[in-house]
Fold this protein.
Amino acid sequence: MDEQYSAINIDSLTESINQCHDNAKMLKVNMQDVSTELGKKRETIRQAISIDAQYGDALFEKAKDLVYLGQVEKAMTILNGIIDLYDAIDAHQLKGIWKV
């Protein structure tokens, strides 16, 4: 996620937003406001990923318990849910989560 945000050209983005605002007869925004709002969005995403990781860890522990108890089918249902949970997150953000 850091790479994606660092690749954003705030100047170009602000210019594009202001072109849309001009077309819609809205007030222009400045680069500082755009940068601040992007930072807020980035932090929101970061927090959501953190919560998802904690949730995923708890589910993974439950799946391991079910395998130990011989309830492999139930464990696979949970593991499939974990995979769905992380489907939209980049692989580099998952390092360390799948330790058994």
